[in-house]
Design goal:
The chain has 125 residues and is mainly α. The protein is built from 3 helices and 2 strands.
Length: 125
């Protein structure tokens, strides 16, 4: 006759419902008893605020664990590192450059138009 070990276990904490925060794993102790270990919730990977892409180089962790991590683990050594993805930063830089170029082009066109009108008015006099 093979004896089947009793696998009925009770929660070790106050919460008696099968919720996301009350997930357990059955573990066999060195003494042969079965015990419950509580599983921590998995952390979310930080995402770019602009594109929604996952941020490389930053670990997925719970907010309380993030508080205990050092700064070098939570950021990337780049402008907006740890907040925006590299592609989003690149597109912002390119956009700013294009806006500045447009301003210069508008100024040059305006000066050319002013010179044309100045020549026309001189020619009429």
């Amino acid at each position: 006759v093979i004896m089947v070990q009793d696998v009925r276990l009770t929660y070790r904490r106050q919460n008696s419902y099968n919720t996301r925060s009350n997930v357990t794993r059955v573990v066999k102790t060195p003494g042969g008893r079965l015990s419950l270990h509580y599983v921590k919730k998995a952390g979310k990977v930080p995402r770019c605020g602009e594109t929604g892409a996952r941020l490389n180089g930053i670990p997925a962790s719970r907010p309380r664990d993030l508080a205990n991590l050092s700064r070098r683990v939570k950021t990337v050594s780049r402008a907006y590192g740890g907040c925006l993805s590299a592609g989003a930063v690149r597109s912002r830089i390119v956009r700013a450059f294009i806006v500045e170029e447009n301003k210069v082009v508008k100024r040059v066109v305006k000066q050319a138009a002013a010179q044309k009108t100045a020549k026309k008015s001189k020619g009429k006099k």
